[in-house]
Amino acid sequence: MEYVKSKIRDVADFPTKGVLxxxxxxxxxxxxxxxxxxWDLSQLYRDKGVTKxxxxxxxxxxxxxILAFELGAGFVPARKxxxxxxxxxxxxxxxxxxxxVIEIHRDAIGPDDIVVIHDDVLATGGTMAAAxxxxxxxxxxxxxxxxxxxxxALNGRQAMPxxxxxxxxxxx
Length: 172
Ligand code: AMP
Hints:
Layout: H1 2-7, E1 9-12, E2 20-23, H2 25-28, H3 31-43, E3 52-56, H4 60-71, E4 74-78, E5 88-94, E6 99-105, E7 114-122, H5 126-136, E8 142-150, E9 166-171
Parallel strand pairs: 3-4, 3-7, 7-8, 8-9
Antiparallel strand pairs: 1-2, 5-6
């Protein structure tokens, strides 16, 4: 994991002043780092019977797809409003300034599914908490939550639902 860490780029003041952005594109473009990320993510869920991985738009699509492929599971995109073509369900959630909405197809997940929801970075946890509530409303058998990076100082863990297993590969 030290190798992957060495490939993550810190970008100061992006997207707004005061934010230190953890840029994973420099890790994803490195074949060895990409391989380690995919392998280590999948090791966390090998024996859990996962049937669907939900990736959160857009940076969660990359690790989420790799994880789904490695586990032999399906991939489901959770998207910004208005992007998915068929019947959707949505959840509004508070951001630092204003609100945002996340959507998935209503038929994407069913009661027999064991789901991992994946995003690249856990910051305040608002996005993931909304995704969890959305997916929970479709009553899958079980939901796991996963990130590549966890920014511990932002206390995102506190926003995670109680009793749900949350994993991350790298903690800062
Ligand atoms: P959250 O505050 O946990 O709802 O984060 C919202 C989204 O912004 C997540 O999907 C992260 O991918 C992204 N994000 C927030 N803060 C950072 C950061 N410092 N570096 C990289 N990505 C971030």
